[in-house]
Amino acid sequence: MKLSDQFEQRFHAMINHYPTKRSVLVPSLLYAQDELGYLTDELIAEMAQRLDLTDLEIRNVISYYSMLTTQPRGKFNVQVCTNIACMLRGGEEILDHCKRKLGIGHKGTTRDGLFSLEEVECIGACSWAPAAQVNYDFHENLTPERMNEVLQDYRRKVHQQENC
Ligand code: FES
Fold first, then answer.
1. What's the pLDDT at 161?
2. pTM higher than 0.85 for the full model?
3. What's the number of domains the chain is made of?
4. Taking the CB of the first residue and of the last residue of the chain, which one, N or C, has fewer CB atoms within 10 A?
């Protein structure tokens, strides 16, 4: 497994910046996941060695953060919040709408590999509920119609990249 030079530069900058090695774990996992698509067994073993942690400690951290995954996901990971503020403002309707629209359930991935879908706990956007997060982007005050536009925008981005 080879991580990019950019990853290595970021990793060494963080290691020299933070007071403990453990502090760089989550950002390192996010950077690695951005490159690899998901957190492989090999990557986890590599991070454990670099940060003087056990594989189990790293897997416990991964299981806590919904942004991190040990399973391959679609290019765009759609995380719909159904926690209390979002639930009261239609979050479950948004999730059901995404399930129908994408033809997949919780933790599913579309056949074309474009979208994955997840029901998640609060993503910190309660004031703008109902909210969803797609990779690093937040989408707020959602309605089924607005969600259609959001999904369509991501599809359009991919088609534009393919045609460049
Ligand atoms: S409850 Fe949905 S963002 Fe907080």
1. 85
2. no
3. 2
4. C
Mutate to test the pocket of ligand 1, among 66, 93, 126, 138 (most ligand atoms within 8 A of CB): 126
Residues of the chain whose pLDDT is less than 70? Answer: none
Q: Which atom of ligand 1 is nearest to 81's Cα?
A: 2
Q: Does ligand 1 come within 6 angstroms of the Cβ of 131?
A: yes
| H-run or E-run covering 151 | helix 144-162
Rg, the chain, Cα only: 17
Same domain, 42 and 120: no
**54 and 119 assigned to the same domain:** no
**Residue among 122, 140, 141 whose CB has most ligand 1 atoms within 8 A, to mutate:** 122
Domain identity same for 59 and 83: no
Please give the residue range of the domain that contains residue 18: 5-64
Q: Which pLDDT belongs to residue 164?
A: 77
CA–CA separation, 100 vs 160, rounded Å?
25
Asked whether 83 lines ligand 1 (CB < 6 A), one says yes
